[in-house]
Amino acid sequence: MKKANLPSKKKTAYPISTKLYGYLNQYSRITKLPLQYDDMSRFFTSIPVLDAKGEETLWETVMYEEYEAEEIYKACCEIYALLKTDGEVDVIEHLEVDRIDYCMFGNTHPYRVRIINRLNDNYDHFYIKKVDASRIYGLELECLLSPSIVSFLIDDRTIIEEHVAGIPGDLFMEKKLEVSRFEQIRIAKEFIKFNERCFVRLLGDMRAYNFVVDITPDIEGNQYRIRPIDFDQQSYEGWRSFYLPQYFKDNNDIINLGLKHMSVESVRQYQLEERSLIARRARSEMERLKYLLKCMQKDRISKDEKVRQLAEELGEHHHSTIFKDAATMGDIVYRNIRLVLNKEFKQSFLKF
Fold first, then answer.
1. I need a labelling partner for 237 at 20 to 30 A (CA). Which of 207, 254, 308, 331 fits?
2. Cα 335 from Cα 315, distance rounded (Å)
């Protein structure tokens, strides 16, 4: 089986351009936050976060001095209100911060804030991260072209993201694949559709730990929805296979379900279904999508050699000259989506 190349060890973080800022402001993504990402670094110590097996994870719980904690925790509750209730401050009275975790892994070095509602002990999370234009484009394309919506807010160099609920992909494959043949087919079907969504909008590095699986009980069995949780690799690398989750060995357990249970005809059907849905979403959000892609076409979110490589590989893959003079990653994404809208998109899921 062909494998995807691994991402660059350290991806460059790109600032928000003037055009992108105008887009974000028009669609209410910009807001004044009570704290910035850099304020979170004032902790004096940390302890490892352990998983259910008692093993260390990539996260550490950070500790603040009492006077620092009071200010930061209050600001975090206000941010949660901005994210969830458009700033209705009444909810803050019932909220408190349970803990704040920090992750050194990844490009944005996120803080994960755990918020508890004192009235019922229910908890939720949100994330505080460094701004990266690539990630913002990824989040916006997710909202416009996928069945999912992600809430996020931006202020200066700080981005706030809501928590995407679901079982981490690697844990899902470890514990949730021993189900009926009927449900295994549903899982494989959703992965085919997820694979298609990533390739159309060029979201890369969708290895198992970069997506979650949302399980919804249905009349007969469960429905499955795969949702990305990492958007740092939106249109950055130059390899075509990097934008196809089917090529990551971490995902082999789900891929094997498709190989086991599905015919080529079934796979083709699900691919065409998803492309049709993507085209329908694009048309329904055409004005906003055009504005976003115009910003993206003018923006620099990758290196020139990666742009040239991806344009060449996609041209060969689609047997098309449409990518020949693409100058930016935004150009490439725009043309890839055009192929879908024109029903000229080429992709074979079983082509290993």
1. 254
2. 10
